[in-house]
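> forwarded from #structure-qc
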């Protein structure tokens, strides 16, 4: 594998940083190549701005059009181009972060906002049908992705009956709405719970779980998201009635097979 590991945590002494270091050593031991985007160390700017696209600030900024034009003209900001080159090189993306307020840290969200621009991560259309290539058929099809997330909560509270909600539902905007949208195959996430109560023993267990997931990452069965253009959705991109059973609504409706419960 050629792995791009993107991480976001403000402290280089954090649990996330330690897990990343162990994970990178494991990838090397397994014979894989890896590149890193440590957004803290890079001092990554998460804010979309007209300067990203060499856009005249006197004119109204339409981000989709401006980013597509800048990609085509080669005028994207150099830091954005550098990240896109890493993604183009990689066949696998690992996205690692602490779960804050049910989502990604702002710096990581801003990485996606600035890097996944029109024409690079989305915006392709089937010339025969006019349908956009997305949700399994996007420009990044052929790449594999995995989310590694730490949380202060106990694992059970991020399960189907937990007060925090099911982790796959919490990650649906990232796993389905970003990674799968752009064409990436997404494997089940790795949750490291109890992040604020880690002991040497529980850390050793967490690192072992990470190494095991990295070892099997090339062959792990992916989350069974529905393809947009497979016939499951009608011309209005609504799930066909016979597939929308009453018990399947919200995120659950967009899997052909429900994901397995998150392992503790």
């Amino acid at each position: 594998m050629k792995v791009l590991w993107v991480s976001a945590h403000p402290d280089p002494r954090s649990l996330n940083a330690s897990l990343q270091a162990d994970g990178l050593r494991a990838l090397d031991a397994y014979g894989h190549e890896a590149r890193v985007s440590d957004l803290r160390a890079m001092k990554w700017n998460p804010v979309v701005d007209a300067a990203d696209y060499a856009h005249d600030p006197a004119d109204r900024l339409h981000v989709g059009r401006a980013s597509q034009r800048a990609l085509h003209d080669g005028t994207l900001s150099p830091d954005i181009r550098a990240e896109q080159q890493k993604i183009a090189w990689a066949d696998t993306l690992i996205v690692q972060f602490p779960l804050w307020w049910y989502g990604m840290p702002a710096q990581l969200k801003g990485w996606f906002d600035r890097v996944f621009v029109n024409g690079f991560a989305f915006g392709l259309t089937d010339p025969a049908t006019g349908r956009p290539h997305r949700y399994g058929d996007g420009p990044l099809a052929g790449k594999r992705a995995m989310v590694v997330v730490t949380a202060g909560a106990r694992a059970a509270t991020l399960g189907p009956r937990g007060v925090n909600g099911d982790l796959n539902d919490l990650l649906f905007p990232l796993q389905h709405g970003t990674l799968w949208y752009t064409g990436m195959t997404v494997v089940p996430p790795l949750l490291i719970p109890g992040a604020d109560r880690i002991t040497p023993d529980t850390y050793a267990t967490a690192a072992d779980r990470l190494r095991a997931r990295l070892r099997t990452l090339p062959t792990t069965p992916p989350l069974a998201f529905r393809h947009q253009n497979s016939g499951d959705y009608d011309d209005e991109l609504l799930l066909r009635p016979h597939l929308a059973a009453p018990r399947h609504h919200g995120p659950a409706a967009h899997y052909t097979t429900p994901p397995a419960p998150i392992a503790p």
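QC bot note: The beta strands are 2-7, 33-38, 92-98, 144-150, 185-186, 190-192. Residues 64 and 197 are 43 Å apart (CA to CA).
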